[in-house]
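Hello forum,

I keep getting stuck at the same step: I have a sequence, I want structure tokens, and every attempt I make locally crashes halfway through. Rather than fight my setup again tonight, could one of you with a working pipeline run this one for me? It's a single chain of 333 residues.
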Amino acid sequence: MKIITTQRPFNRYRGLFSALDQYVTVEDYNGSFDCDMLFHCPTTFRHLAGIMGKDIDEYRAKLEEQIHEVDCVKDADIYPGDAYNSIRNIVPVVEQLPILMWDGTYPAVIKKKHSSGGRGIICIDNHDQFRKLFDPDAIADSYFKDILPTVQLDPMDYTISRYRDCPGDRYTHYRTVTLGDGSILGAALLYSGHRKGQYKVSDEIWDMPNTPFYLNRRHICSNYQQGGGIIPLDTRNVLSRFEQGILHDHGIKGARLPERVRDLSTQTAQLLSVRGLYVLGQDWIQEGDTYTLLEVNRYPGFDMFGFTHHYDTEHTLDYMAKEIVRSIGPKPF
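Reply #2:
Ran it on my machine without issues. Output:
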């Protein structure tokens, strides 16, 4: 079995390739797509085109041909947001709309494109907040009006979506790590480190109370990197009463991933593998009894496996490598 990668020197999958080396042949791309599995990083297009003396469009066309004709694992030049067009009519997806297309429904969530780790997210509750962020005429005071153009956001760099109110008194979302064959390698419910409405953001000009820029915005992130917590699901971990209370608010019994999220995660993984996305971190939000896909991370963080499997980084990468090899191995008739 052979894996070809264009991206080993470039990004966070470097450690995963080292782990894969223990079980299969991993080779850097040398002009041939003869492999069982292809890992590709979009940022290497120009680099590879220069090495091969080829036009970038020609290389992309060749890669697309490989994706559609060869039965292999892929990670192609398709960002998750672009791939949503392929699945939004099949699984429920949070619609990330262009700022200029917003209809003025609040609360709403504004997100910086290609941001990660809970950064670049702003929750707004009214049109006055929206204007402060994007409208050059939002502030009448001449002194602050002169400053405004230098601090306002570029609408082309952001998207906006309807705010969804998850159950309980914490901001939460589900995270599943999946492979393209639909298998779920780990699942957890992530929660904020603060109660709803208790914590106001205070790290930008929009959070300075004595200025007309002040938004008085809520901090809605439930990311572990933003001080939140992780409740492992589908494991035998012993949970605290606090964690059990959060699961109870979500209608979860036995610390099991809800079947609807399980089914949707499997379906999404299989759909996006066709578009070139294989190792994924999927984020789902619950609103009542409805589950909606927030986003897909093409390079999911592996911190979750420390909670769900009690693995350190080395064991996590080894586990991932074994599961990837299993998923592309010979299939029984």
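The chain has two domains: 2-77, 81-328. If your local run keeps crashing, start a new thread with the error log.
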